[in-house]
Amino acid sequence: xxxxxxxxxxxxxxxxxxxxxxxxxxxxxxxxxxxxxxxxxxxxxxxxxxxxxxxxxxxxxxxxxxxxxxxxxxxxxxxxxxxxxxxxxxxxxxxxxxxxxxxxxxxxxxxxxxxxxxxxxxxxxxxxxxxxxxxxxxxxxxxxxxxxxxxxxxxxxxxxxxxxxxxxxxxxxxxxxxxxxxxxxxxxxxxxxxxxxxxxxxxxxxxxxxxxxxxxxxxxxxxxxxxxxxxxxxxxxxxxxxxxxxxxxxxxxxxxxxxxxxxxxxxxxxxxxxxxxxxxxxxxxxxxxxxxxxxxxxxxxxxxxxxxxxxxxxxxxxxxxxxxxxxxxxxxxxxxxxxxxx
Length: 342
Hints:
The chain is an alpha/beta fold. The chain folds into two domains: 3-121 and 264-306, D-Maltodextrin-Binding Protein, domain 2; 127-259 and 325-334, D-Maltodextrin-Binding Protein, domain 2, CATH 3.40.190.10. It has 13 helices and eleven strands. The chain has helices spanning 3-24, 40-55, 73-81, 96-102, 140-145, 159-171, 184-193, 203-208, 247-260, 274-289, 291-301, 310-318, 324-334; strands at residues 28-33, 61-66, 89-92, 116-120, 127-132, 150-152, 177-179, 198-202, 216-222, 265-268, 308-309. The strands form three sheets. Strands 2-1-3-10-4-11 form a six-stranded mixed beta sheet, sandwiched between helices. The chain has a three-stranded antiparallel beta sheet with strand order 8-5-9. Strands 6-7 form a two-stranded parallel ribbon. α2 (40-55) packs across α10 (274-289), α2 runs antiparallel to α11 (291-301) and α9 (247-260) crosses α13 (324-334). It starts with a helix and ends in an 8-residue tail after the last helix.
């Protein structure tokens, strides 16, 4: 390459960098959250903001706007068909982003294959099925022999309800009873007091309340992604996949994992210019690698960050099980219906 050509390339790169810096300088980027202030996802966004700002050229102001409704789907609908594709509005919702469309939930007016993904602040929370030690179910045989075990959950179709139903189905529990209507703290108290016998328990819950693990028996764990055990779960706890009897049940678990991986995706509307997508993806990746982000995340949420990049999200969505049989079984377990036969 000649000296003149080299100078021309350098000048072009400098102009490009300056253009990106000028675009965001003095502007405001809005993170549109599909939830209410103070929730777990809100805390994750607040941990991310200072580091995302740091790595976007021009360091724009970043604010959070809450748009609750339909468990987050209202915000996704707006991002899909109402938000300007100008790189100044970033969507942020929980795992309902994926499950809403795939399960055909009411109010899901978007296409997950057309949204543009930036990353996720969390890659999913492994969840165990537990019973209180005082109930005496210290082996799988005793657990299966007991009839009418009371399994607590927040509401029908809530992730705690689905977790409990999924475990009861694959473990082969006898006539389990599902007790709903709790908040998460209330459910923990109900378990401690003996009002319920068991339920799902995430790794985040145990990290926030370390002493609780001494009061329960761990019967199985749903790792996310499959095979990834993290503290406080040990490999002595059998992975739920070991209880699946056939391909249908393995596909069910794959679908469950896909809905929780990514756990808190950030995304842009279709049609956002590739140059701006590149800028924001690079900034998100750098923010996730910044040691300060992990520290702030832990301080605000009480758990360790497990971020995912854009490519991992795109891959997970491409590999989603979308066959009608698997979706029908998942919807059955998520609903208030008798347990399906195996």
